[in-house]
Amino acid sequence: MNNQLVLSLKHVRKAYRSGDEGVLPVLQDINFSLHAGEIVGLVAPSGTGKSTLLHLAGLLDTPDAGEIVIAGQVTTGMADAGRTAMRRDQIGFVYQFHHLLGEFTAKENVVLPQMIAGIGKAQARRKAEELLRMFGLAHRVNHLPGKLSGGEQQRVAIARALANDPALLLADEPTGNLDVHTADSVFSQLLDVVRQKGLAVLVATHNRELLPRMDRVVTMQEGRLVPADFNGDPLPASAG
Fold this sequence. Notes:
Residues 7-239 form the ABC transporter domain. Pfam families: ABC_tran. Belongs to the ABC transporter superfamily. Macrolide exporter (TC 3.A.1.122) family. This protein is an alpha/beta fold. It has six helices and ten strands. The strands form two sheets. The chain has a six-stranded mixed beta sheet. A four-stranded antiparallel beta sheet has the order 2-1-4-5, with helices on one face.
């Protein structure tokens, strides 16, 4: 890990309107920093705000209050075009389900986001082949997603998330749709590649067996983000 601050959330709050219940606070006062080369696990029960936090960090939603800074840029008040460009250039997303385009090969799925970012086709193809090779898929680059196993599909999805060399990778249950053995293998390859590249990574997961392999762990407690041990349990206040 180096000292480059990639993601900073300062006093971030978010609430939703919920029918007759009125305003439902989800995130109360989130303060969080993530540096280049750091992999942080986020573990908490469903409904506590994990996905909301990832959506805010990934600029897919806006906070009610507070400040979000990504790669040195304050996103508060940023126009939609700027937010879209930042998502394209600075942020990679990995979800529980791979969301690959079924009519395109593995390589084409990794080429597409690069071409959208203005990269030439030949360069994008070389980068796609390099990334897929790093994930052990050199022999599968021309296969359609339907011809790949679940683990292979998720590896392609991770390669796609890394295609534009983001500074920040946000992963929401990246192994949640895989069996235990495949989840372990996919996560190992994810860790190897992101550590090589020095990315800042935030991984939301229910799989507590993955937590000891991360640099640190945080959890949600009453709408706030607090340090946790490698079992996912909140640390005493004095330890945080």
